[in-house]
Amino acid sequence: MTHVDCVNKETLWVTKMAIRRWEVRQRLKFIENRLFWEGRVNRSDLTDFFEVSAIQASGDIARYQELAPLNVAYDASRKCYIPTPEFSPILVNPDAESYLAQLVEISKGDGGPVISVVETPQRCIDPNVLRKVLAVMRESLDIQLMYQSMSRPRPTWRWITPHALSSDGRRWHIRAFCHTDGMFKDFLLARIIGLGDTREGSLTSIADIKWNSFVDVIIAPHPGLSPEQKDVIECDYGMAGGKRTISVREALLFYFIKNLGLDCTNAGKPEEQQLTIVNGAEIDRILSGGASRATD
Predict the structure, then answer these.
(1) Is the separation of the CB atoms in 164 and 137 below 8 Å?
(2) Staple partner for 254: which of 138, 142, 238, 292, CB 3.0–4.6 Å?
(3) Torsion angles phi and psi, residue 116, rounded to 5
């Protein structure tokens, strides 16, 4: 049976079976998404996420197997269902940005007020690249990638050891050890042009000191503001006693400071900067030492 036959079978199956119910469709899409992105799915994934019974979860997996028999197989050693080498999504169109957004916010409730969000152009991320990187991190492997950095005129191949994903609010990075430069760096997912071989991992996340170290950033209203303006800023940011302490990974400190438009020297206009860093000298010293600037 070809995959096209499976898709045709899906059309008939959709007409006849309970997949027409919205809840069932959502669970089947969830199964397919897990197979694509996570490389596995089991009953507990469904029971935990949808709060359904184990019997219902088993039935949903069986429905998906009937719908797409060439997509899924049971791995007895791992006690879970895994995608086959022929796996091809038929219920979802894998989208990297959507998946990454789910990592930040798993679900949103229905209803509520009408909202509008200022649209920011998103960098294009190949879902197959993200999928492969996730698999490499799960297996603690090294991977060779073709990467276009801003510091080199042409794309180059390099080995990296990825161990985490991070976002600065606008861009998604892979946190990884770069074997070319001999240091932990941030690699933009959108700048990965190609993927090569993998090999047994040579490092663990424990070695990434800046990732595992946290810095307390103490923010307060800019000293140049009037008392009334300071009250507004304290309310805006939920400050207590005129300040607020935020713990930030040292590896992400540069992004945090940049996103808030902070200036350790208070050189900006008070009404524009609005905030100051109480422990600015300490933060400036950390940033001067290269925290969060190992980007490529």
Answers:
(1) yes
(2) 292
(3) -140, 135
Provide the b/e sequence for 260-276 (b: ≥16 CB within 10 Å).
bebbbeeebebeebbbb
Q: Can you tell me the distance from the alpha carbon of 245 to that of 217, in angstroms, rounded to the nearest whole number?
A: 6
What is the DSSP track for 212-264?
H-EEEEEEEE-TTS-HHHHHHHHHHTT-BTTBEEEEEEGGGHHHHHHHTT--T
Range with lowest mean pLDDT among 146-150, 164-168, 260-264: 260-264
Classified as helix, coil or strand, 200 is strand
For 90-117, how does the pLDDT look when each residue is reduced to its tens digit (9 = 90+)? 999 888 877 887 776 544 444 445 556 6
Q: To which residue do tokens 């090999």 refer? A: 199
Q: What distance in Å separates the CA atoms of residue 139 and residue 137, rounded to the nearest whole number?
A: 5
Map residue 163 onto helix, strand or coil. Answer: strand
- Return all residues near 160 (Cβ < 8 A) that are at least 6 apart: 142, 143, 144, 145, 174, 176, 177, 178, 179, 187
Q: Which residues pair with 277 in a beta bridge?
A: 219
Return the SS3 of 47: helix
Q: Cα-flanking dihedrals φ and ψ of residue 44, to 5°?
A: -65, -30
Q: Mean of the pLDDT values across residues 270-293?
A: 84
pLDDT at residue number 77: 93
- Which stretch of DSSP H or E encloses residue 16? helix 3-16
What backbone torsions phi and psi does residue 170 show, to the nearest 5 degrees?
A: -125, -30
